[in-house]
Amino acid sequence: MKNIQMVDLKKQYAAIKEEVDKAISEVIDSTQFIGGPVIQNFQNALEDYLGAKHVIPCANGTDALQIALMSLGLKTGDEVITPSFTFIATTEVIALLGLKPVFVDVDPDSFCIDPDKIEAAISERTKAIVPVHLYGQAANMDRIMQIAQKHGLKVIEDNAQAIGCDYTHADGSISKTGTIGDIGCTSFFPSKNLGCYGDGGAICTNDDELAHQMRKIANHGMEVRYYHDMVGCNSRLDAIQAAVLGVKLPRLDNYCDARRKAADYYDVAFADVPQIKTPYRDPKSKHVFHQYTIQLEGVDRDELNRFLAEKGVPSMIYYPVPAHKQKMFAAFNCEDQELPVTDWLTTRVLSLPMHTELETEELNYICESIKAFLVKS
């Protein structure tokens, strides 16, 4: 079996090489590397795709989250509710801004923040909720928005892993994740469903004032050149990355469909394997499978991870240490907080290869290798 990739960017690039090379070459020929029409064209296209009024391109997904929080005018010590079972960037920016992350547990099926746990965590210092659409599945946004509106809280969606996901509301209407809360943030890290060839990110909102604030914050707090109205930062998407994204955005839905097709194969292959729980598919959420993450029962997850590596099958553990147990948050004294579902998942989840170029032969080899380990153990 040839070398299987966790994410095969080389094969994806080969399929669009001519268009990507041309787009990059045009940026280099123009020498307009910062700003310019390529950025504006991508921004407009992403606004149209998401159905969002405003998109603010920025340097990366972490900056997107930071700028979003900065735009809310929060004060030191204000609290932000968020899951602990997520990539650290979600929670890191909260502490970076002098705010207090308040960790709540996740739903055992969707892996997303559990709305039933949010309300109990709200205090008089709570100002915002940051739900994460983890692994490509939407959080329960109807419930989250109801809670936020009841308590006067802002909602910032971490949509880094779920761009392209459709969320069906209780009334039957459909929204793209990232456009439901007050602000949505995404990352264009190369391995993402919509990834560039370096770092990149974007923020979206339908709120004119928030959009105005975030554009200024991302540009050194500046609206008129050399006149700085607030403390900001320097965060922008460069034109070469925008050119790559401009080629890939029209293919995003096809990319997501290819991931779902691979996920379907895994689902069928593991349907009768009692030690494996395949990803839950919430009927409200059209899962885009940034990751295909299984839960293992009665199996040594770390030993399986090593066995697969020996077989030439990559697999990843997202995330072995939840945020509330990370050293960086020791000052908040939250390492002993009881988040049973989060703690349970960190010992049992394993993500399998998932990308747009997976072939049937590769999928079969992956599944048979896992089954061989289960028989052996």
Structural features, described:
The chain is an alpha/beta fold. The chain folds into 2 domains: 9-250, Type I PLP-dependent aspartate aminotransferase-like (Major domain) (Aspartate Aminotransferase, domain 2); 252-376, Aspartate Aminotransferase, domain 1. The chain is 38% helix and 15% strand. It has 12 helices and 14 strands. The chain has helices at residues 9-30, 37-50, 61-70, 89-96, 115-121, 141-151, 208-217, 239-248, 252-269, 301-310, 340-346, 360-376; strands at residues 54-58, 79-83, 100-104, 126-129, 154-158, 166-168, 174-176, 183-187, 201-205, 222-224, 227-228, 276-277, 292-296, 349-352. The strands form 4 sheets. It has a 7-stranded mixed β-sheet with strand order 1-9-8-5-4-2-3, with helices on both faces. A 3-stranded antiparallel β-sheet has the order 12-13-14, with no helix packed on it. Strand 2, helix 4 (89-96) and strand 3 form a beta-alpha-beta unit. Helix 1 (9-30) crosses helix 8. The longest helix is centred in the first third of the chain and has 22 residues, at 9-30. The protein is globular. The model has no long low-confidence stretch (mean pLDDT 97).
